Amino acid sequence: GAGVSQSPSNKVTEKGKDVELRCDPISGHTALYWYRQSLGQGLEFLIYFQGNSAPDKSGLPSDRFSAERTGGSVSTLTIQRTQQEDSAVYLCASSTPYLPEAFFGQGTRLTVV
Amino acid sequence: GQQVMQIPQYQHVQEGEDFTTYCNSSTTLSNIQWYKQRPGGHPVFLIQLVKSGEVKKQKRLTFQFGEAKKNSSLHITATQTTDVGTYFCAGGSASKIIFGSGTRLSIRP
What we know:
Mean pLDDT of chain A: 93
Structural class of chain A: mainly beta
Helix content of chain B: under 10%
Strand content of chain B: over 45%
Largest sheet of chain B: 6 strands, mixed
Helix content of chain A: under 10%
Number of strands of chain B: 11
Shape of chain A: globular
Distance between the termini of chain B: 41 Å
Oligomer: heterodimer
Number of helices of chain A: 0
Order of helices and strands of chain B: EEEEEEEEEEE
């Protein structure tokens, strides 16, 4: 596609439910990042995928968070047993070694009630 | 692990005043990138610096990369209301981009 696509754009879920957030990176981009941004705050790194290498999961805040990237393309971020503090905008970005910058999606705004 | 720190966290200025945000890395970077996030939007790439001591300008924005390639700054001259947003630096190392925490700029008209 023309850009990084994230779905859904908004998600409201009840505390304790599981949610899945999807990211479609730009075609051919080997690197994919997930970030979390709370209201008015900076970017909190969650996880990084690069090609076929083992992902860098060092930013995942707890074992309720997991992510996978199938076929080196689409990625899914799963949050189990959601808590109110998980409410934030979840941003996905992708990049290629041939261009310097990361391209961000519009984000998924998650609200846990 | 590698960290990229950015200060200040917030800056509130009068329109027409200058603004500067600073970025420091715990390790030497191969490049530094700057992004701008408008309120309600997502970060958008502004520029990349690669060379030690490099300085680049985009209209009223001046970007610098330190001699040791561990720090960088973004300076905006004579701010305008369109400059409102959060400015992020991002350090490139190997194949990974590490973002700073960002500086949120607000402006009094």
